[in-house]
Amino acid sequence: MSEPASQPKPAKPSAFTSRRQFIQVGLAAVGAAWAGVFVQTRLFPAQSATAEAKPVQFPLSELPVGDTKLITYGGTPAIVLRTPESLKAFSLICTHLGCTVEWQTGENNFYCPCHDGRFDQFGEVISGPPPLPLEAYPVKIVDGNVVVGEEI
Ligand code: FES
Questions:
Q1: pTM of this prediction?
Q2: Nearest to 134 by CA among 104, 107, 100, 105
Q3: Residue 142: in which H helix or E strand, if any?
Q4: Are 100 and 91 a contacting pair, CB within 8 Å?
Q5: How far is the CA of 114 from the centre of ligand 1 (A)?
Q6: Is there a contact between 48 and 59 (Cβ–Cβ < 8 Å)?
Q7: Which amino acids bring their CB within 6 angstroms of ligand 1?
Q8: Which of 19, 81, 83, 116 is deepest in the core (most CB within 10 A)?
Q9: What is the pLDDT of residues 77-101, one digit of tens each?
Q10: How many Cβ atoms sit within 10 Å of the Cβ of residue 146?
């Protein structure tokens, strides 16, 4: 007697009942990931250093007109710009994904090398993906010193 022909085993049940369902779940996962990135970068861009930062002070003589000075304010890199008309201070943290921007003296703007973001001398976005201007800090001259971080 011969053995009965073996029956094909039933396929293992899959978590996905069809290729279409697999693709739908995959697309939903990708969409959720993008939504998470969007929410994080749009609603909570770069963290502000001003909330707990102590003022930074240095002699005005260290910052000639037309020059810049790098400082650390609230634990983050920042810059003070001195023009003939004013003093300005900005965070160097890009409002896109938090890279450090660089001041481009020749071009008179800030450049973020991560995704080619650019900000003008007032910290406003010129081009690229940054959603917000650079964070500006209060700055003033007190008794021959530049003081960054105290409300004016
Ligand atoms: S992190 Fe600056 S442009 Fe993306």
A1: 0.69
A2: 100
A3: strand 139-142
A4: no
A5: 5
A6: no
A7: 94, 96-97, 99, 112, 114-115, 117, 128-130
A8: 81
A9: 999 999 999 999 999 999 999 999 9
A10: 22
